[in-house]
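Severity: low
Component: inverse-folding endpoint
Summary: output formatting inconsistent between runs
Steps to reproduce: submit the following structure tokens with default settings.
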């Protein structure tokens, strides 16, 4: 086979591999999380931790609150992107405007992080020591490094 044909074949195969793996990215939800995804996540967590009905109800409530807060946080996405596009179109970008946009986004993330932390602390208080140990082991498994392609 000519060298040029081999190079083209290898390049195309590499592109298909890269785009194929990117398409299989775990957790990719182009339309956001919906109720079905949320139910699947809470059911999987409940099954892995052997949650009681009360714990599962708490988990579903907390997950719903977090999802609602995330939807509200993303609601103004289009207007924020339009504002950013308007800033980029200007002849000169004012540093104060850029800093203000960054500060607004950091504040939004901080509020979300505080909200999630409060809910997770409340849920953690309902767990038994055995359930906490299962979570800790899962975290340690994940921290052990290596390739986690397809890890669940």
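Observed output (run 2 of 3):
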């Amino acid at each position: 086979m000519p060298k040029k044909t081999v190079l083209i074949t290898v390049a195309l195969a590499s592109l298909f591999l890269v785009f194929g793996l990117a398409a299989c990215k775990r957790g990719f939800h182009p339309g956001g999380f919906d109720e079905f995804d949320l139910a699947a996540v809470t059911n999987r967590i409940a099954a892995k931790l052997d949650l009681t009905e009360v714990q599962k109800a708490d988990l579903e409530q907390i997950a719903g609150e977090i999802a609602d807060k995330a939807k509200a946080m993303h609601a103004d996405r289009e207007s924020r992107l339009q504002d950013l596009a308007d800033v980029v179109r200007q002849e000169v970008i004012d540093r104060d405007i850029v800093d203000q946009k960054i500060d607004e986004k950091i504040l939004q993330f901080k509020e979300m992080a505080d909200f999630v932390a409060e809910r997770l602390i409340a849920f953690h208080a309902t767990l038994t020591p055995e359930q906490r140990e299962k979570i800790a082991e899962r975290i340690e498994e994940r921290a052990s490094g290596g390739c986690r392609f397809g890890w669940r």
